[in-house]
Predict the 3D structure of the following.
Amino acid sequence: MKRIAILGSTGSIGRSTLSVVESFPERFQVVTLAAGRNVDLAFEQAQRWRPQIVSVAAESQAESLKVRLRSAGVAGVEVVHGAAGNVRVATHRDVDFVVSAIVGVAGLEATYEAVRAGKSIGLANKECLVAAGELITAEARRQGKPLLPIDSEHNAIHQCLRGGRMEEVRRIWLTASGGPFLNTPKSKFADITVEQALNHPTWKMGNRITIDSATLMNKGFEVIEACRLFNLPPEQVGVIVHPQSTIHSLVEFVDGSILAQLSVTDMRLPILYALTYPDRIASDLNFSLNDLRHLDFSPPDVEKFPCLRLAYEAAKSGGGKTVALNAADEVAVAAFLEGSIRFEEIPVLIESVVSETPVGKLESIKEVLAADQNARASAREKAAGFNRALGHKVPAAVGVEQN
Amino acid sequence: MKRIAILGSTGSIGRSTLSVVESFPERFQVVTLAAGRNVDLAFEQAQRWRPQIVSVAAESQAESLKVRLRSAGVAGVEVVHGAAGNVRVATHRDVDFVVSAIVGVAGLEATYEAVRAGKSIGLANKECLVAAGELITAEARRQGKPLLPIDSEHNAIHQCLRGGRMEEVRRIWLTASGGPFLNTPKSKFADITVEQALNHPTWKMGNRITIDSATLMNKGFEVIEACRLFNLPPEQVGVIVHPQSTIHSLVEFVDGSILAQLSVTDMRLPILYALTYPDRIASDLNFSLNDLRHLDFSPPDVEKFPCLRLAYEAAKSGGGKTVALNAADEVAVAAFLEGSIRFEEIPVLIESVVSETPVGKLESIKEVLAADQNARASAREKAAGFNRALGHKVPAAVGVEQN
């Protein structure tokens, strides 16, 4: 019986994790949940799973949840809140395995404390590796506990790496769907609207990650995550565009053999893999090879998608640069969604923030969070500048050509 | 330093093996060679590699080779011949690893004796698994020594299987190029000529294996090999048509993950893998993922290619049936190449022989060879009957429609 904490239980990964737990009640037990802001769902989950602790975002939400649980006759569930509440969820002594799926830097501290407490981690929070990857992976190595990736690409890499030893790896290859603008010429990028950018061809996701997929910054973040997770320099991490997203990633070994992982695009699969590793257990998540027809591939166009280049550069520098990349991207995407900057200005804004950020090795989660705040403030200021410039110089119907 | 015997050193796999040895002189040493009928090349190989023993097919060839080596001043190479010579090559006490690459049943005895002598085996001889697979794999298990497949499909499976345990495998999938008649309608099969059948789209190979690829019998043999090698029932071995032959095979695990192996189509890669397993060493056999564009897949058409069905049936029965399948196929292919039977009569002839063969478990290589002789005699007799029928009833320009 594996005893599980879920950080981010009301989000997409959290709900998929509970669905996996539900399918295998003899194998997994929910011990604690960090639910965030969705108190209605937190109430349902507490009632259904009877965890020892539930954490919500704010004190007022904790009070409201306590009242609801009491009137529903649910006893024995302790309700806590905020960052300290998340840490209690992550480090509870009865927990073996922590699913880290809080979105954004809010998930950093609790995940780091879980690693420090010697828990095995299933990692779905991007910032844990992009912003604090050096810290968290170093601590996991010290603890001798696995960091198992819960996203389709890195999970695929983890599986393919079983075909050899780390020193036998020549390169790992992340597949990218290519996003909605894969076949849009660069000359049309000035006209890209928010609606177009939010229209991802294969995945239905949150707004930020959808825009990050359209700029390929999401793939850039994954390059950084891969470098941290597998302890490889950026030169050993390649990207290949594969619109069907059937092959989730590949590992090329020094002898010339390449292993690839294919499956349905269902997050329950990497979650199940992480929860059961080193075993595999039977699921109904079947991919029918008899129905497979065509797979397409092409190299990514870094000229068209400069975010990918920015990510490689930040991965090389490490430290504060990757923190700034993530923070500036979040601000830039928000500014684009608000209509303050154009699509092709997203990388311009990010590059401007990152270039002014010192590399500086960050020694603690506190330093990471401070660097994150600084980069956000700088990005917001710059975004406001873009906004003014845009408003004055560029009529919406005309567009800016930048190359 | 791995000390190697090569059974079939003058054939394609043998020469590729020597090319691999040449690239890594610090890792591999040639101890013995079984060269067969090509005395000129046997002489060159003996001169270049200075093995302790060279075996050739006939006594007269051995005498001629001795004379040539003596006059070239090559000392210390013992020359032997025939089946007993092959066994000496395979079981030499200084040999660690035997590459089994003699074509046909001629390779059976020496390979079996190598397994019995506790050697590790790199297996390229099809008959070792199709005709004598139950015997040879049982003996290898008893010896606790690996049988490493040297062909692209089973080698790919071996690599993908590293991603989990055998009991976690739901199915293995062999890829098939589909042969030259993949897109030829069944109604045109009556008109297929020898020239068309020998025109394989992707591989340049010997005549028999080229025809076996055109009928899909080659894939059928590989299904049987896979069953024996990986100890799986035929229901757990699937075939998928993949004309580019870039993915060499796949393994589907019970959780729904599928691992696939990709590489260049160069036999040196599986040879290198087998010689270095469980390690991998750097080679220049690179597959450029940046140049990858399209991969196509489809299920095989068993109606059009009944040989595949015959192989599955023989795999289920085992024993004498797979011996007869192989023997009858060799005779049927020869009859087709001579113009005695039509392309679509190949499976008809084979099925007729196999259906009359008792299943009977074969307890020794001697019994396997006797069953092989019986099946060949039966197939030759039947082929002669077909020949007469053809000559009388079917004008070459008209064709026989059989469905």
